[in-house]
Design a protein that fits this description.
heterodimer, A: alpha+beta, 3-stranded antiparallel β-sheet, 3 helices, globular, B: alpha+beta, Ribosomal protein S3 C-terminal domain, Tctex-1-like_sf (chain A), Tctex-1-like (chain A), Dynein light chain Tctex-type 1 (chain A), Tctex-1-like_sf (chain B), Dynein outer arm light chain (chain B)
C-alpha cells in the first residue's frame, strides 16, 4: 500500500476525469454547439446513460477511490439555475470536477466527486 | 540561535478498524429531518432572485456542512419553542434567513467521526421548464449513505443532496 500512496496513482487526477466526463456527456447529448433538443421522455434515459457511463469509466481506472456522480439536466427557457457544494474532506487526496454543458435547448451540469478510501 | 530541525512524526496508532462503530454511523433519517426543516424554514417565502441565488446556494451548503461537523449524537438540531418573539423577527432576505437559522440551531455534538461528507445544493427558477436531477455513486453501500431533500414554492425550487462517505 505504501508505494500506492506515495505515487501519483493514489491522487485524484482532474484532467483524466474531466476528459472522461466531457466524452460521455457530449456523446450522450450530441455535439456542441447544437446538442439534442429537450425531450421529456428521453431525459431519464440520458441522465442514466451519463451517470452510469461515467461511473463505469471511473471504475475501470482501478484507483482507490469512491466516486459520487451527479447530473442535472434542465430545459433552456431563460430560467436560472445555480449549484453549490461544500465538502468536508482531505484536500490533498480528494477532488471534484464540474462539467457544465450548454446546448441550444438544454443545460446539463455534471459533477464528479472522488474520495480516497 | 537554536534551530529546530527535529520534525516529529505524528504518532497515531493503527486502529485496525474498518467499520464505523454502532453509534458513529451516518444517520440519513436525522440528517434528512434537519435539511428538510432548514429548507422549509428559510425558503418558505423566498422569491427567485438571480443576484442572490448563487450566494443563497453557497450559504445553504456551507451551513449544512458546518452543522454536519458538529451534528448531535442523537436526534437532530432542533429549535426549542421560545416564549419571546425577539429572535423570530422576519429576516430581510433568504440569505439572512439562513444565517438566522444557523444562529438559532447551534450544535455541539461531535458529528460523524471518520466520515467525510459532501453537500450539494441546487437552486433554480420555476418557469414551466422540464428538469431532472440524478446521481450515482461507486461506494460501499454498507457504510456510505446519501440524503436528498427538495423544496419548491411557486418561484424557486431547491434540491439538497448530502453524501456521507466513510473514511477508513
Amino acid at each position: 500500500m505504501d508505494d500506492l500512496q506515495s505515487s501519483e496513482e493514489a491522487a485524484f487526477v482532474h484532467e483524466d476525469v474531466r476528459s472522461i466526463v466531457k466524452e460521455v456527456v457530449e456523446s450522450t447529448l450530441g455535439p456542441l454547439p447544437q446538442g439534442k433538443p429537450y425531450s421529456h421522455e428521453s431525459v431519464p434515459e440520458w441522465i442514466d446513460t451519463i451517470c452510469s457511463g461515467i461511473t463505469k469509466r471511473l471504475a475501470s481506472l482501478h484507483k482507490p477511490f469512491k466516486y459520487v456522480v451527479s447530473s442535472v439536466i434542465m430545459q433552456k427557457n431563460g430560467a436560472g439555475l445555480h449549484t453549490a457544494s461544500s465538502c468536508f474532506w482531505d484536500n490533498a487526496t480528494d477532488g471534484s470536477v464540474v462539467h457544465p454543458f450548454e446546448g441550444k435547448f438544454l443545460y446539463c451540469v455534471t459533477t464528479v466527486l472522488g474520495i480516497q478510501v | 540561535m537554536k534551530e529546530e530541525t527535529e520534525v516529529k512524526e505524528a504518532a497515531i496508532p493503527n486502529t485496525f478498524q474498518t467499520e464505523p462503530k454502532k453509534d458513529e454511523r451516518f444517520r440519513p433519517a436525522d440528517v434528512r429531518h434537519y435539511v428538510d426543516d432548514l429548507l422549509t424554514t428559510t425558503l418558505k417565502t423566498a422569491r427567485y432572485n438571480a443576484a442572490e441565488a448563487p450566494l443563497l446556494a453557497r450559504e445553504l451548503s456551507k451551513l449544512i456542512s458546518q452543522t454536519l461537523v458538529q451534528f448531535p449524537e442523537v436526534g437532530y438540531p432542533y429549535n426549542p419553542p421560545k416564549e419571546q418573539s425577539s429572535s423570530s423577527a422576519v429576516p430581510s432576505s433568504a440569505v439572512a434567513g439562513v444565517a438566522q437559522y444557523g444562529a438559532e440551531h447551534p450544535t455541539t455534538g461531535r458529528g460523524f467521526p471518520r466520515y467525510k461528507h459532501i453537500v450539494q445544493v441546487t437552486i433554480g427558477e420555476v418557469k414551466d421548464q422540464g428538469m431532472r436531477v440524478a446521481s450515482r455513486s461507486l461506494w460501499d453501500p454498507k457504510v456510505d449513505s446519501c440524503v436528498s431533500c427538495h423544496f419548491q414554492n411557486n418561484s424557486l425550487f431547491c434540491v439538497a443532496m448530502v453524501f456521507g462517505i466513510y473514511f477508513e
